[in-house]
Protein: Citrate synthase
Organism: Rhodococcus ruber
Amino acid sequence: MTVLEAPRGLHNVVVTTTSIGDVRGDEGFYHYRQYSAIELALTGTFEDAWFLMVEGRLPSDTERAEFLRAVAPLRVLPGDVAAAVKTVAQSGPVQPLLALRTVLSGLADAVPLYESSEADKQTTALHLCAMTPTILAAVHRIRSGEQPVEPREDLTTAQNWLFMITGEVPDATSARAVDRYLTATIDHGFNASTFTARVVASTGSDIASAVCAAIGAFAGPLHGGAPDRALDGLDEIADIESADAWARSKITAGERIMGFGHPVYRTDDPRSVMLRETAQEIGGELIDKAVQVEKIIAAALVDLKPDRKLYANVEYYAGVVMELCGIPRSMFTPTFACSRMVGWCANIVEQSHDSKIIRPIARYDGPVPSAVVRIGAAQGT
């Protein structure tokens, strides 16, 4: 058997083929199928990109309207699911993502999980994607001592997300900003959670199981759990004059500055650039401070880490946009999960077409094994 050595983290290792999208890190560009993801975020809607993930093409005006009508009733939680959400939300200080994972793992009676056909898979995927924002928003409100807000059929995904969290229909500017964020974060290559989802899917398991595994990976602080911590860093900087000293103390102490650096991009993260511009359209002291601090931190990184190219990543300005739109910090990462659920499901469905299980090997580096041990003899029996 030929053994192929792979770098740590499978860096730059191609493990399969996909038609869903790609990230070209050296160019600062990524796309969904044949379309620039950033252009879709700026000129289209989240539902357009969602349709693209399902059908492989952008919808016509008629198809968009039909898609919205089909998805709207799926957002409403069946009675047993709503009861499970309430139970989980009241069970203690459970992180919203872990609550989501718990609820989704018990959907057997509400959603067909063992899909026997392509149509079954797509139905399950649509249910999961549509219900995820409703579940997460309900968990948040129950834990905040408030009643869940039912989604409205006349609102888009972004509008409903803000509505279900705050209880108020958002203004057009906030809804459009969140829509851009959701659209831009649907998929991003074979990141850890997407790869995890595909590994589970390769075993022939159901979509919900693969999604639950992806959520576990996504919840890690090195993956989806960074937008709120990036904003916390901005809070630590009392004023612009102290930003340079703050950044340099972090860097020299070997601490990571959340919101900077990316394992793929070696230039500006296009999502960060787009979200910065989106936040500037809203305006305010927070975005003004964020822009100035970004430049100061970037300069400090160039000075102290000249051999590494570290730029603001999506989390840096994602936190700013969500804060400006009234989303609580505890719901930053759940907002990310609402969009990435669509990408996970697209990858899971695609992986289900490949009958080969993903089964790599590891190189053993533990103690050298001795001669065969006969358990009975070793125990003196």
